[in-house]
Amino acid sequence: MGQTKFQKFIFTLMMCFGMVLGMTVYNMILNEGVHSDLLTNLLKEFWLGFAVALLIDVFIVGKLAKPIAFKTVKPNNETKQIKIILTISCCMVVGMVLFMSMFGSIIAAGFTIDALKLYPLCIIRNFVMALPLNLLIVSPIVRFSFNKIFSPKLA
After folding, report:
1. Which of 9, 16, 81 is nearest to 51 (CA)?
2. Per-domain residue ranges for the chain?
3. d(CA 127, CA 133)
4. Cα 122 vs. chain centroid, distance in angstroms?
5. Nearest-10 Cα torsion for 67, 73, 74, 77
6. Which residue ranges does UniProt annotate as crossing the membrane (predicted)?
């Protein structure tokens, strides 16, 4: 989304923020349960994950997911916009889950063989949450907000 590089970056920033926030809360609850320090821990742990996710999104997954999506769905005048959006979103989720699950495994177990053992479970757990989070919650909210911020003002 977005017409200019700045707008595209803001859209990416908003999507990344929403997804990392949702996935961080999800993983913290899975790993620690709900407790009184959840918000404090979230504020501490969120920022590193957000920075890593943004870098992976901008420099790796975004560059791979969109060409793959456009090979799957050939955009033309007859292609419905929702089909393009869903295809790109699904490709982004798959790529980000693969990378961020490795990040989470390393954060949990360090650079050890245990991180590799943990990785497949993290992929499954994260994919189960990330796809509906993206398609049903974050993407619609971000698209609505983005359009409110960047739509031409009608006089």
Report:
1. 16
2. 5-150
3. 10
4. 15
5. -130
6. 9-26, 46-65, 85-111, 123-146
**pLDDT per residue as tens digits for the range 24-65:** 999 999 999 999 999 999 999 999 999 999 999 999 999 999
Q: What tokens does 146 get?
A: 């983005």
Q: Residues near 61 by Cβ (< 8 Å), separated by ≥ 6?
A: 92, 95, 96, 99
- Spatial contact of 85 and 139, defined as CB atoms under 8 Å apart: yes
Counting other chains too, the contacts that 116-122 makes at CB distance below 8 Å and 24 or more residues apart are none
Task: Tell me the C-alpha distance between 2 and 7, whole Å.
Answer: 5
pTM: 0.91
Residue 110 region, left (φ>0) first, then alpha (ψ -120 to 50), else beta? left
Could you tell me the two tokens for 124?
């499954």
